[in-house]
Design brief:
alpha/beta; globular; 220 residues; 8 strands; three-stranded antiparallel sheet; binds cytidine-5'-monophosphate; five-stranded parallel sheet
Length: 220
């Protein structure tokens, strides 16, 4: 049987994580937060004394190959350590963006991501879900929003988690991250050929979820 999968890809802070999680909940599907996997990889590398530099690619890939990451509800575990908070800092985000540009690291994490595809279905959130990991997906959404809107959203998110940040710094940082994610040689951030590009600058999360659900229902 073909297991249904919906891919939500897009730039940082486009709302895709929130939208993907809400979709998974409403459909009763599994949820893959692939960004969290790259973040955990970056955190594990730094904790192992491996800076996210090209010279450490093979060692970080070896670590990724057997990464003891587990998702328990909304908790993310690295071994027995709850890293749900630790992986959400900007520093880890930047390091994740560095390790994710390493082809050997991406290759090492493919099987782990494929393992999330289980009945009754999956909503997968990331950068290359539709282009590389689940190219067979019947619905691929490329969710985007203006940089200013995304900086505002990331700001709110950080504040609610007790971190401090300035919107201007965040906007510059996310544009730098977009540039790195979009220009890397493997799995650059780009819409799949058959993706539906959805700009949600002027949509609420609920409106965005409703749009994606309507697309999904139209395909059943
Ligand atoms: O989505 P999130 O901000 O958690 O992702 C952190 C970083 O991991 C991204 O900036 C990107 O470099 C990388 N990533 C990726 N491929 C994915 C998901 C995330 O390269 N499928």
């Amino acid at each position: 049987e073909r297991i249904p999968v919906i891919c939500i890809d897009g730039p940082t802070a486009s709302g895709k994580g929130t939208v993907a999680a809400a979709l998974a909940r409403q459909l009763g599907y599994h949820f893959l937060d692939s960004g969290a996997i790259y973040r955990v990889t970056a955190l594990a590398a730094v904790r192992a004394g491996l800076a996210p530099d090209a010279g450490n690619e093979a060692r970080i890939a070896a670590l990724a190959q057997t990464l003891p990451v587990r998702f328990a509800g909304d908790r993310v575990l690295l071994g027995s350590d709850d890293v749900s908070q630790a992986i959400r800092t900007e520093e880890v985000g930047v390091n994740a963006s560095r390790v994710s540009a390493m082809p050997a690291v991406r290759a090492a994490l493919v099987a782990l991501q494929h393992g999330f595809l289980r009945l009754p279905g999956l909503v997968a959130d990331g950068r290359d879900m539709g282009t590389v990991i689940f190219p067979q997906a019947p619905l691929k959404i490329y969710l985007t929003a203006s940089a200013a809107r995304r900086a505002e959203r990331r700001h709110k998110q950080l504040i609610s988690k007790g971190f401090s940040a300035s919107i201007g710094d965040l906007c510059a940082a996310l544009q730098a991250r977009d540039a790195r994610d979009g220009s890397r040689s493997v799995a650059p951030l780009t819409p799949a050929q058959d993706a539906l590009v959805l700009d949600n600058s002027d949509l609420t999360i609920d409106e965005t979820v409703a749009r994606v659900l309507a697309e999904w229902q139209a395909r059943q």
